Amino acid sequence: MTYLAKLDTIIHDVIEPAAIAVDRDAVFPRAAIRALGEAGLLGLTSAAEMGGMGLGLAEAAQTIERIAQACPSTAMVVAMHFSSTAVIEKFGAESLRREIAAGRHLSTLAWSEAGSRSHFWAPVGSAVRDNDGYLLDGAKTMVTSALEADSYIWSSRPAEAEGASTLWLADSKNAGLSQTQHFDGMGLRGNCSAPVISKSMRLPQTAMLGPDGGGFDIMIGVVLPVFATLIASSSMGIMEASINRAVTHVSGNKFEHLNSTLADLPTIRAYIGRARIRADMVRTLRDDTVSALASNRPDAMLRVMQLKAGAAEAALEVTDIAMRVCGGAAFRKDVGVERYFRDARAASIMAPTSDVLFDFIGKAVCGIPVFG
Question: How far is 99 from 243, CA to CA, in rounded Å?
């Protein structure tokens, strides 16, 4: 059975039936994550020699897009896991890589801090040498799967070297870590995002991922292309679901006195057409970005930045259109449009935010160093 066949079965049997409750009750999609793990899909991008599927970014993007059409909260959890796996595959221990490949370990990124906000590459938390290990202190503002993940890819200022940051593998049950509150947000309500605080968390030398001070290069070179592509793919799934639900509504509801459907109105069709164009433009950009990364094209990083910003902004527009064409019915939860409208709000304010990326893209186009 192909990975997509396995995925579609899980979406149909597990993810989609639970999606409304996951959103309504703000509960973590445990059954979905368990099913994805048992099917080997949490190890989709893990190396084949570790027992994983050995697939790449294109397949991960397809996976996230399909999950997001049913449940964007679940898609967010899996996207962050794949983003973390990119680091662990490159710098992690073989034993952990095998656990992830087997679907027995869920990881996530723990980067954003109040002190540096959307500038995730510049943490203010510290790491201090202590005998044969390190003590880490810091406060992460929003960590996806915070109460559920088995490990965090944690960032801090370098312990002893120069550079913007250092990355660490932290067991989520480590002494010194605490999660301060349950997530009760407007959208992505089941992603279990919460602040995580570290007070004198002790880590061994082996927990350092890559060189001390080398976190920035890993964040930008290894993780950002994966993260941006997957978050954009989630936005694509949200757009597809919104368009499909809007079309179903306007095609199935009539002006009884005119014996015509809402879709018979040129204005309604024009809005649907606009939404379709926006979604298809993002798909083209996503696929070109994956191609640029695979072939190491000179414009690959520019495409990565354009993709995240473009997809996030398009999702805002498309879900707004879906709400508009469905009219007052869109405010009812049974129509399903308002859930995607809320979930779509997250990507544009998720670091690096759309506004930060617009500036970065402008710098790149003007020949100015992006992080200069």
Answer: 38
- Count Cβ atoms below 10 Å from residue 288 Cβ, excluding itself: 16
Residue 123 to residues 26, 112, 167, 224, 318, Cα–Cα distance (Å):
29, 7, 10, 16, 34
Q: What pLDDT is stored for residue 221 in this prediction?
A: 97
Q: What DSSP element (H or E) covers 137?
A: strand 133-143
- C-alpha 279/C-alpha 289 separation (Å) is 15
The per-residue pLDDT for 183 is 84
- pLDDT > 90: percent of the chain: 90
**Sign of CA pseudo-dihedral 253, 254, 260, 265:** negative
Strands (E) located in the chain: 107-110, 126-130, 133-143, 151-156, 166-171, 177-179, 194-204, 208-209, 254-255, 260-261
Give the H or E element holding residue 69.
helix 57-70
Rg for the chain, CA atoms, rounded: 21
Pairwise CA distance, residues 230 & 228, whole Å:
6
- Tens of pLDDT, residue by residue over 296-318, are 999 999 999 999 999 999 999 99
In tens, the pLDDT along 31-61 reads: 999 999 999 999 999 999 999 999 999 999 9
> How far apart (Å, rounded) are the C-alpha atoms in residues 196 and 350?
17
Q: What was the pLDDT predicted at 119?
A: 86
Give me 170's structure tokens: 């932290």
Average pLDDT over residues 91-109: 98
**Distance between CA 221 and CA 342 in Å, rounded?**
31
Q: Which helix (H) or strand (E) holds 275?
A: helix 266-294
Q: In what order do the strands lie in the sheet with 151-156?
A: 107-110, 151-156, 166-171, 208-209
* CB-based contact 135:202 (threshold 8 Å): yes
d(CA 264, CA 252) in angstroms, rounded, equals 11
Give the pairing type, strands 133-143 and 126-130. Answer: antiparallel
The identity of residue 113, as a single letter, is E
Record the pTM: 0.96
- Report the SS3 class of residue 204: strand
Beta-bridge partners for 169: 153
DSSP 44: T
